[in-house]
Design brief:
Layout: H1 2-18, H2 29-61, H3 64-102, H4 121-139, H5 153-165, H6 178-194, E1 201-204, H7 207-223, E2 232-236, H8 242-250, E3 253-257, H9 269-275, E4 280-286, H10 298-308, E5 311-315, E6 344-347, E7 360-364, H11 367-373, E8 375-377, E9 385-387, H12 396-434, E10 439-440, E11 448-452, H13 458-467, E12 473-475, E13 480-484, H14 491-507, H15 516-526, H16 529-544
Parallel strand pairs: 2-3, 2-4, 4-5, 5-6
Antiparallel strand pairs: 1-7, 6-7, 8-9, 10-11, 11-13, 12-13
């Protein structure tokens, strides 16, 4: 379009010159028009060259997996109207296998509109207590991987009492509940102390929001303020998918490096360095990763971050309240703010911090980076508005509970709990090594034990354990199962049932039909990503239904 305007302008200039349309006293206009025409053509040329360079950069750095995904998604959108019935059939098949996961009572009371008159307190409490007692009993059997990180009647009673104190509080109004804001500041300071950082950060609703907040801060400080229009973040394939969500929301390109090549399942600095460009704003590392429980070589990645002057976020949502309390022989390499290249960290208080669900901490190396994470708006008719997190109003009661959890357990309590969990983890790992048919995928684990099998499909073992009440985590690429060890996990029962389940699966290999988790993941591997997401959307629809 701009080139067309230049051509029209040039033709007007030539026509005006040849036909003497401009009076003599305005003759200076002709050379001025000539200069403007030349400058405009130069601008068009520069814009064209810049566009070609951008296309070349895009083509050079676009990974093969990106091209494949783009092609499959495009084809899927074209073909979707013609294969809709087939998709419905596939998704129904997956839903049928996954229906038991929802565990909804067949005779439950369902209300789709407000009752004409409000229900009495006794009716409400009785209705909820019936389900709560049953569901909580299931969670307290010691057969769940992760999920329930705290237990004990005494700790639960403390959390209930503290929550009641600040039931209606909101940190958005610091002048009304100053003690809640003090609790938040102290949580940040205590978490920063154990991670060897400065007390700079805030409390979020969970690990996902902590990662979102950290990414936004890096986009602002390492991206926009440096004039980077197309920011990029580098991570490993084991990174938590909350990072994918953050990049999608904030329009950041994510370069994912395969961590399975050498079976180490860690993000190697050499592989990261090959992907660093002028658009790179941050490296994302895990301590440890959720799937395999591997601590990435943060020290090597820190050196890279310093060398190229980019950010490094350490996702310690899982290990933030375990690893700092482990001995050096268990965690021999630094992973926190002791390393100069680490610019932000996340640690979940509602996991091994033993707080109630709904709190996490995001920490920053500098105030400049934290300020880059703030949302502020000074022209709103409602007054000056600023929030340190994505949320506006936040439940102050949860912040108070997180504070109470930290100060009630204390340093010695966390050290004791870390020792118990690491010992249990190593015991499970050693036992899995001795079970014929199982293959341990993580060496020297601290929190997570990940294993697979070369003898049978590991998903069959997962389903066999599910039948006797165990809730273990299925993994993919490669197929595996992991156990996130907590204080509530009954290790003796786990190892006994695991050995029995392995024997059962091995004995039934010849006549066993494909179904359950194996069928779900086998079907998923046959489908393009967009079709898998279609089925996942259907499942989420079902989970949100009454």
């Amino acid at each position: 379009m701009l080139e067309s305007l230049v051509n029209i302008f040039a033709q007007i200039h030539v026509y005006a010159s040849q036909n003497a349309l401009i009076p003599h006293r305005w003759a200076f206009v002709l050379p001025l028009m000539n200069v403007i025409s030349t400058i405009t053509q130069d601008v068009v040329a520069i814009a064209g060259i810049s566009g070609l360079l951008r296309v070349g950069y895009f083509l050079y750095h676009f990974q093969l997996s990106d091209w494949k995904d783009l092609l499959l998604r495009t084809c899927f959108q074209w073909m979707k109207p013609f294969i809709n019935k087939k998709l419905q059939k596939i998704s129904n098949k997956i839903l049928k296998e996954a229906d038991s996961m929802l565990a909804k009572e067949p005779n439950r009371t369902i209300r789709l509109s407000l009752p004409k008159n409000g229900l009495g307190d006794e009716i409400i409490l009785n209705e909820l207590s019936l389900c709560a007692n049953r569901e909580n009993t299931k969670c307290q059997t010691g057969k769940i991987s992760g999920t329930l990180y705290s237990g004990g009647n005494k700790h639960s009673e403390l959390m209930c009492k503290v929550y009641e104190f600040y039931l209606w509080s909101n940190p958005l109004k610091p002048g009304v509940w100053p003690r809640v804001n003090q609790c938040e500041a102290e949580i940040v300071a205590m978490t920063a102390r154990i991670l060897n950082g400065a007390p700079i950060g805030c409390v979020t609703s969970g690990g996902t929001e902590s990662i979102l907040t950290a990414v936004r801060a890096h986009v602002e400080l390492f991206g926009k303020q440096r004039g980077i229009a197309c920011p990029e973040i580098i991570c490993g394939s084991t990174a938590h998918c909350a990072l994918n969500k953050a990049c999608e929301v904030l329009n950041v390109r994510l370069l994912c490096i395969d961590c399975d090549d050498d079976n180490s399942y860690e993000l190697k600095a050499a592989a990261v360095e090959k992907q660093i460009t002028c658009n790179t704003i941050m490296i994302f590392a895990s301590a440890p990763s959720f799937p395999h429980g591997i601590i990435d070589p943060i020290d090597d990645l820190s050196a890279l971050a310093k060398q190229y002057d980019i950010g490094l976020h350490v996702d310690a949502c899982l290990g933030g309240f375990i690893l700092p309390f482990c001995q050096e022989d268990i965690v021999p390499r630094a992973f926190d703010f002791r390393l100069p290249g680490v610019t932000s960290m996340s640690a979940d208080t509602h996991k091994y911090g033993h707080a109630t669900k709904g709190t996490s901490v995001v920490l920053f190396k500098s105030s400049d980076l934290q300020h880059a994470s703030y949302f502020s708006y000074s022209h709103w008719s409602g007054g000056l508005y600023i929030t340190p997190t994505f949320a506006g109003s936040r439940p102050g009661a949860l912040i108070a509970c997180a504070w109470a959890a930290l100060v009630s357990i204390g340093e010695s309590g966390y050290q004791q709990r870390a020792q118990v969990i690491v010992e249990a983890t190593r015991r499970i790992a050693d036992a899995i090594k001795s079970i014929d048919g199982l293959k341990l995928m993580t060496q020297n684990p601290t929190i997570v034990v990940c294993f697979t099998s070369d003898v049978f499909n590991i998903y069959r073992l997962k389903d066999a354990m599910s039948k006797i009440g165990w809730s273990l985590n299925p993994l993919q690429q490669p197929a595996a199962v992991n156990i996130c060890v907590t204080e509530n996990l009954d290790v003796d029962d786990l190892l006994r049932d695991l050995r029995a389940a392995v024997d059962e699966v091995k004995a039934s290999i010849p006549q066993q039909k494909i179904g359950g988790t194996e069928m779900i993941y086998k079907t998923i591997r046959m489908l393009p990503p967009a079709a898998v997401e279609f089925a996942m959307h259907r499942f989420t629809d079902a989970s949100l239904a009454p």
